[in-house]
Amino acid sequence: MMVFPTSIAVPASPATLASPALLQTDIGKMLEACLEQTAGALDISHAASPADISQAIDAVRKAQAQNRPLDLMEAVARVQGHQEEHLGTIMRNLGDRLAATLNPTPPLIPFAGKLIAPSAFYESFDQIHKMARALLTPVIFVEDTDAIGVASVNPIAATLLAAKIQEVVARRFDIRPFLTIARIEYEAWTFLTHKHFEL
Fold first, then answer.
1. What does pTM read for this prediction?
2. CB within 8 Å of 158: residues ≥ 6 apart
């Protein structure tokens, strides 16, 4: 049985986070945790066969090596042979199955695509912006670092990024912000990832 941790260990000092090589290592750990947990949830929920998951993981790793983020859910949908016009429905179904493995279940919000990108937050927390890009999980709102929202088609990616944001903000400001984790539709997710991460 797969265990789904809610946070990933990070280096202790802000100086460490500023190091590009160590930041890349931290992002790599986050990506591997996301791959492992998403793959486990897809398997447990019978959303994909082990062969499809394995092939999709290979596709994600190849894309990452080319600095081109790719979510495992989308890779699985494409490996399963789903056409572009059906991806919205397929991704919603896969997201429902993954969300059912989490407690609490992240809600699906229909209006996320209309929210303004938190540019000042991304500038202040460049390492979070890089992690959000790697996980394809936009920060959808920030209220003075007291309340922050993240959203993705992949609720596991959103959960991992939320835990990392709490750690980084708490380290810098000695406060633990309230984090909202939400799911978004495939079309809104595609729009937001292009807008937030220039993909």
1. 0.85
2. 106, 137, 150, 151, 152, 181, 182, 183
